[in-house]
Specification:
The structure holds 2 protein chains of 2 kinds.
Chain A lengths: L2 H7 L4 H53 L2 H6 L15 H32 L2 H16 L2 H18 L11 H24 L3 H9 L4 H12 L1 H17 L2 H6 L17 H12 L5 H31 L4
Chain B lengths: L3 H9 L16 E12 L2 E12 L3 E5 L6 H7 L10 E9 L4 E2 L7 H7 E4 L10 H11 L5 H14 L3 H4 L12 H13 L5 E5 L7 H14 L4 E5 L3 H7 L2 E6 L2 E7 H6 L4 H7 L5
Classes of the chains: A mainly alpha, B alpha/beta.
């Protein structure tokens, strides 16, 4: 018998094995319990999303039994509160698109420039001072921005550049939303730029590039994936912003892309109806779920586009 | 005369004895560090270093980690200017201009326009192969497409990469292998026709085959450009360089013809390092 065989055939004492197995079993059960709790907690967010979609679809189904999809999508009058209600969603979409478009036209360039400055140019102490202040701007409630647009910016525009501007208009809230979401764009873009490895910047400087050339030609393209993520976040915020438009744009559904006119966006309409002007269960009430679904689909579209762009521009370094 | 100790050194470093013939230190000076001191904030990283750099020769900087070889190399293109708190003292003269590269009135960007650098880890930009190589020309304001195309092709040929990438110049440089990426970086540095090329451990992230091709490239390039290379690999220093400087703790201990320095170092410290007694 070889020594190896001797080792293998040695009897294993029960007293050693049993307690070990017990401890393992206990540990195993404990781990499974913790795992399940974590899974349940993670499912809360998923379940909420599923529930929202389910309710939106269910209530919208009721709405679309009364109003044809064609009328909803192509109608240019939205007047659910009138005696002869009309349910064309285009005025709400045009308001939403106009406000979000102007807001993004302000926020994306401003936010990107801010991010480039903070990441590539600002001295340490400036960055450490400015970034918290910018992030504080995110914490200001939308209502405050709404009153700012209505009572400060609109009169200011009337007095200076645009004397004919009505008291309620899309321009002022859109500009205010633009400024409001600059921190989102700047903060997320700056994080993406700072994540670009120093070796890449050094490569650019070593070629005789200036700071600006390095920032614009090397760092920004390298951070594209993160910058696109910031843009998608900003777009979703701009489309979803409620209070500013509800307060300052006039709540009048109006099929126009002219920012000088008053109009309502999808979210502003939902606020208006939720205040209780329409009886529960009525067609008008159900209409908020239909427009809510429209909004959800628009945002989903942004996210899919953003996901695709991020994958398209993802860099490995 | 080859002593026993020298023979052992040669054998260990795979130097063919035929190469180990005595040579004179000759050549035109391209640059020279004179009493160069460098400080990272309060840390005195380079202590009174002096080093001649001969034109169209390869000068290798060797020494244990943290001895200041990379710090020394990065003085030549003023990379230290990028970070606050760094301070130079002394001079690095560039010839035949007779200008001190470290002079505060000299624009570091001008310095980097004439002295290019290849880094330890390949660091191509998130651009196509073509645009990577064209980068230096573009930042110099070159707009002539024909001239850019011509320089890019020449640089890629010099970097021994043209045949491998000529059909895929529009592909992202990240798609290439590590060795190819490093050659893109070399082509990028060559496209602007630099006077001095700085290599900071250019093969430490590469496999042996890629390393061999980069070393071959360095030997070919010295026909046209003065080369300063930091390396951890003593065999590499023997294979590619004409002159070698040994550095230790921020001081330049010994400088000489590579063959002389490796076969018969003058200083005990150098010999201890070369024979693997430390480092």
């Amino acid at each position: 018998m070889s020594p190896i065989d001797a080792v293998h055939s040695a009897p294993i004492a029960d007293t050693v094995v049993t307690p070990r197995f017990k401890r393992r079993l206990f540990r195993h059960v404990k781990e499974r319990v913790i795992e399940s709790i974590l899974l349940l907690l993670a499912l809360v967010a998923v379940a909420t999303t599923v529930a929202i979609v389910a309710i939106l679809v269910h209530e919208s189904a009721g709405f679309f039994e009364e109003v044809s999809l064609r009328e909803f999508l192509t109608g240019t009058v939205w007047s659910p509160l009138f005696e002869n209600p009309r349910y064309g969603v285009l005025p709400l979409v045009s308001g939403t698109v106009t406000v979000a478009g102007i807001a993004l036209a302000v926020a994306l360039p401003l936010g990107t420039i801010t991010a480039i400055y903070l990441s590539e140019f600002a001295p340490h102490w400036v960055r450490e001072t400015v970034k918290p202040i910018l992030e504080l701007l995110e914490a200001v409630p939308g209502v405050v921005f709404g009153y700012f647009a209505l009572l400060l910016l609109t009169p200011l525009l009337q007095d200076t550049l645009l004397p004919g501007l009505p008291g309620f208009n899309m321009l002022a809230p859109a500009l205010v939303i633009g400024v409001m979401i600059v921190p989102y764009v700047a903060s997320v873009s700056e994080d993406a730029m700072r994540a670009v490895p120093m070796s890449m910047r050094e490569g650019s400087y070593a070629m005789g590039a200036t700071r600006l050339q390095t920032a614009v030609r090397v760092v920004t393209p390298a951070a594209t994936s993160g910058i696109v993520a910031a843009y998608v976040l900003a777009a979703s915020r701009a489309v979803g912003e409620t209070m500013v438009v509800a307060i300052a744009a006039g709540l009048q559904p109006n099929f126009t892309f002219n920012p000088m006119e008053q109009a309502a966006t999808i979210t502003a309409y939902i606020v208006q109806v939720s205040q209780g002007d329409l009886p529960h269960g009525s067609l008008g009430y159900q209409s908020i779920f239909a427009v809510g679904l429209t909004l959800a689909l628009m945002t989903l579209g942004f996210n899919i586009a953003g996901h695709w762009l991020r994958k398209r521009f993802r860099e490995v370094y | 005369m080859v002593t026993d100790q020298m023979a052992t050194n040669l054998a260990r470093l795979n130097v063919p004895p035929s190469v180990a013939t005595s040579q004179e230190m000759t050549g035109t000076l391209k640059a020279e560090a004179q009493n160069l001191n460098f400080y990272y904030g309060g840390f005195h990283a380079l202590k009174n270093t002096n080093l001649p750099v001969y034109e169209r020769k390869v000068t290798a900087l060797i020494g244990p980690s943290g001895c200041g070889k990379s710090t020394f190399l990065r003085c030549f293109n003023r990379m230290h200017d990028l970070y606050p708190g760094n301070r130079y003292e002394g001079r690095i003269m560039l010839y035949p201009d007779q200008i001190n590269l470290l002079d505060p009135t000299v624009d570091p960007i001008e310095v980097r326009m004439r002295i290019s650098m290849v880094f330890q880890k390949p660091n191509p930009f998130p651009k196509s192969i073509y645009e990577n190589v064209a980068y230096g020309l573009r930042v110099r304001g070159e707009h002539n497409r024909g001239r850019i195309a011509k320089n890019v092709e020449q640089a890629l040929r010099s970097a021994a990469l043209w045949d491998e990438v000529k059909d895929r110049l529009d592909e992202p440089a990240f798609n290439l292998s590590g060795g190819q990426q490093q050659r893109v970086c070399i082509a990028r540095a060559l496209a602007t026709d630099p006077e001095i090329l700085l290599f900071d451990e250019p093969t430490s992230a590469l496999d042996p085959i890629a390393t061999a091709s980069i070393e071959q490239l360095i030997s070919d390039l010295k026909e046209r450009v003065t080369i300063l290379i930091v390396t951890h690999n003593l065999q590499q220093a023997v294979r590619v360089s004409d002159y070698t400087a040994y550095m230790y703790l921020g001081e330049l201990i010994e400088f000489g013809l590579t063959n002389n320095l490796f076969i018969k170092p003058e200083k005990k410290q150098t010999e201890d390092y070369l024979t693997g007694r430390f480092g």
